[in-house]
Amino acid sequence: MKRLELWLCIAQRGSALVLAPLVFLHLGVILYAVSGGLSAAEILGRTRSSALWPAAYALFVVAAAVHGAIGLRVVIREWTAWQGRSLDLSALAFALLLLLLGLRAVQVIA
Amino acid sequence: MRQHRSYRAFLVHRISGMALALFLPVHLIVLGLAVETAALDRFLVWSAQPLVKAAEGILVVLLALHMFGALRLLAIELLPWSDRQKNWIGWSAAAALAVGAGFILRSFA
User: How many domains does one find in chain A?
Assistant: First the structure.
């Protein structure tokens, strides 16, 4: 296995370990909050009630950007003819897009 | 081999992962709307339609399927093998469907 593939594999597993408890928390919050409908005031009231919420969501965004981009790259490499440098750079661009959008959203809800 | 449930679990994990990765930018853009609360409220009113709630329910199931499937894969890779792991595909699917059912029940309550 090439060195890059080894590091991506480790990053994929590591980000999955970080994501698992955060997804669990996210699903719990979804099930709790969805009852009776959602409103911007209710969502922001919760996320601005403690610095822990934005911190958790920032970690969530970073782990999801790493995990999602590596995962898409793996699937595209194995299921399509697209390979090589252009795919690597596209996956990196996708990770940066998720980071940018995610951290902007975290900044707004903090 | 393609009839084997481990292969079906592999497909479910991949397809749910791809769907979630492609949905994520949209989700983050919507959250960014909170910079103007009226815009987010307009979106939330739109998302209260039954068909949109049902679509959200599918996304919740996909997220839960991907998470429980990942826990199973991590356990297989990082922990010693035990025969009980054979049943974890079924338990993962059941847990994900339970989360989805919980979402549908609570969102239509």
Answer: 1
What domains does chain B contain, in order, with CATH numbers? 5-107 (1.20.1300.10)
Query: Which chain B residues have a beta carbon less than 8 Å from that of A75?
Result: 14, 17-18
Nearest chain A Cα distance for residue B32, angstroms? 4
Q: Give the domain extent around A64.
A: 3-109
Residue of B nearest to A57 (CA): B28
**pLDDT tens track for B84-95:** 888 999 999 999
What confidence tens digit (pLDDT) does each residue in B15-72 have? 999 999 999 999 999 998 888 889 999 999 999 999 999 999 999 999 999 999 999 9
Picking from B50, B48, B31, B51, the residue whose alpha carbon sits closest to that of residue B40 is B31
CATH number at residue A38: 1.20.1300.10
Residue whose structure tokens are 């609570």: B106
**Cβ separation B67–A40 shorter than 8 A:** no
- How far is B83 from chain A, CA to nearest CA, in Å? 23
Residue A84, CB half-sphere, CA atoms under 13 Å: how many? 3
